[in-house]
Amino acid sequence: MTRRGRLLLFLIAATVTTVLLVGAFVELPDFGTNFHPYGDRAVHAALEHRTANAVASVNFDQRALDTLVEETILFAAVLGAVVLLRQVTGERRRPPRPARVSPAIRRLGVLLLPVALLVGLYVVAHGQLTPGGGFQGGVVVATALHLLYVAADYRALERIRPLGPYEVGDVVGEAAYVVTGLAAMLGGSTFLANVLPWGTLGTLTSGGTVVVLNAAVGMEVACGVVVLLATFLDQVVEIDEESDGARPGTGESR
Amino acid sequence: MTLLPYLVAGWIFLVGLYGLVTSRNLIHAVGCLAVTQSSTYVLLLAIGYRDGGTAPVFADIPTDARVVDPVVQALTLTDVVVGATVTALLLALVIQLHKRHGTVDPDELSELKG
Question: What are A93-119's pLDDT values in tens digits?
Answer without folding.
Answer: 888 888 888 899 999 998 999 999 999
